[in-house]
Amino acid sequence: VSLTAQSQLATLSGTIEDATKAVIPAATLRLTNQETGETWNASSNDQGIYVLPLVKPGRKYQLDVDKDGFKPYRQTEIVLETGGQHRVDVRLDIGSQAERVVVEASAPQLQTESAAVGAVVENRTIVNMPLINRRAAQLARLTGFVVQIGSGSNFAMAGGRGNNTNWRIDGGNAQNVLVGDQGLTFDPPIEALQEFNVSVSNYSAELGRTGGGVVQMTTKSGTNQFHGSAYEYLRNDAFDARTFFAARKAKLRYNLFGASLGGPIRKDKTHFFFNYEGRRETRGGTLIHNVPTAAERQGDFSGNARIIRDPEAANRPPFAGNRIPASRMDPVGQKLAAFYPDPNVAGRGSGDANFLANSRSTESPNTYVTRIDHNISSNDRIYGRLLASNNQTIDHPVWATAAVDPFHRRRENSYYNASATWFHNLKPNLISELRFNYDRRHFVNLNSGAYSNLNSQLGLRGVKQEFAPRITVTGMTTLGEGSNHERIQSPIRGNHFAGNLLWLKGNHSIKAGFEHRMSRNDDLNRNTAGGVFGFNDVATGHSIAALLLGWAQNANVNEVFPVRSRIDAMGGFLQDDWKVTSKLTLNLGVRWDMDVPRREEFDNRQNSFDLKAINPVSGTPGIITFSGRNGLSSYAHDFDKNNFAPRIGFAWRVSEKWVIRGGGALLYMGLYDQATVISATSGFSFRGSFVSPDNGLTPALRLRDGMPPIRIPSEQDLTPGFGAVPLGRAPVNTVEYFEPGPRATSYLTSANFNIQRQLPGQVVFELGYLATLGHKLALPAALTLNQVRPELMAAGNAQSRRPFPQFTDVTQISQPLGNSNYHAMNIKIDKRYSRGLQFQTNYTWAKGIDDAE
To answer: Is the pTM of this model over 0.90?
Structure first.
């Protein structure tokens, strides 16, 4: 692992000198990839400095240097890493061209050309690491200043924001679309990975729009020799022990298998690489549920110490014998209660972890990675890469009736990511880089009740008949799985275009560029189209009694019209890596980022909210407004256009064994810290929300009556009084919105100071300090506004004392209100692969304070 930090490709630079340390200008250099035959050419300038930029990462490079009057020089086994800025200084000896000096390079370790903090995990480490699922994202944990959140690809880097890392594969975007969360969408198999680069602080201005770190992964390319592999990894419950709570071992069948092949299509010109990997997995777990007794499901609570009361009678008297008469039971509630399974844990009472079962989930993903590299000429190189995957996941039911099973759901996911890159030498010192990245995803989620027709069988009215309801019962396991009843996201599409220009001028390597990301999501979300009904024990003494009586404390239904949400992101940068002397390099840059606010492309299906306007229905402040109507913008809020972020760093090679590096940077993040694909759709959905005014003493509704009539809104209904009710009447609508007007973009300021020391045996000792301060951080959750102020709290109906009593709730989405600070020190000892042992150890001490995470 070595410290690096710039763009996806590598750079090799250095100084050409003679034996007296006088610089040698106009020496010709030729860098050759010994595995593919590709070449890069340069010459030293008047100060004897050469730069070979935009070189494909690889482990076997050869550098040839020629100058009349000097012996030809050759250095072999040069390793160039992803994003690396590597240095090879050359000393030419006087002599004839017939004599050649040959040197075998050692693996680079000291980072002498960049102030950035990060690490590269090379291929041999990747192949030999014991990685769960053989996936690449876990490699980020090998870097100091990085903390994994959970078990997936969510990392907080250098005190930055979790799940806000900028992920790139071969230079192209690998993040989720901008309207979603910013997680990794394609975690490549390690068999297809050449290198893995993590940059956590003060990296090049070329890299941006991130909440802390940038991860760049490089896929393998073919060589002049054919190479292939085949593999399988097996896990089975036969090798496992029973967990403490399980009556027997949960089932586990895990097979991960694949093959790869790479080689020449045309030697020295065109090469290919292909990898297929599949996984077939059946995994079990132990589920512990709270269920009522068989007698309680029939209305007999005589064995329960709680007093069961009649909520319809004056003063709520107890039912005789603690039994609910069959004549009083709600026909829908009675059928729903019957779906609970019988308790199966001896000695456990009603609702007391009294049902135990093993779950079973199956997955069958397939993953494909294909890459073709073509060397058109010495001035033109192109490569193309395709990533693809598909998967079906089924959480199988554990209850007898699958439609109300709390675990059962089905998901389908497919993903395609194609990228093409072209490098063109306009002049020997002027190189252009163009890249286009296209990704497309399809996602379907169906919960346990989807297309079960249970609502029709129950006679539950006012909700979608082909679905089942979700029933929440205080103290008991929920009937029905908790995700969207049905959700289809297709297509989820993103385009990423980047164009860069590199100019080598004297001691300066100047790079400028622009990038544009388009993100679009088509969404059909039948979120709670089957209905959600909640029951508590306030009125009856027991929540199951409330269910049997159909006495709902709350109910809601929501089916959003099809929406096409969109966000674009733009960025530009200027970076100058200035070799002030042969020992001092300055990294100077500035970057500009701007996100285009969320908008909806089908029919401006997006709402906002005016906090002060008087509602014509209730006579109180607060009206729902609608994008693109009555003079309002089609965007959720105003643009934030002045996000300029300077970067400055230095790398000082004190001696051959000491390097001191440091600097500071400003980073702008995305506008939102949560998914916004179906946000703010009031007026564009079949939606109703009903809540008891006194926490259940009065029902929000009776199950036998079904959901109250809800009118599907039309364009003519989108008036200032939309969704409101007169004061004193129970509200039916919840409002969420983006605060209109100016909105700041979250940003981080960071600084670092780092010392490296080369030790014997290819060991490097490193001591580093890093600080990250976050400002105007977007809240990862909605801000609730419709709460009763403490001084107004009293018994009785609280709704009338809310700021907006005409609505159930009013929330602002992802407000930029937070701050954070992080200070850390990291000590690292690193030994590279040579001939024998490789190891790396990090100790990080860190302190963070955060009011928005």
So the answer is: no
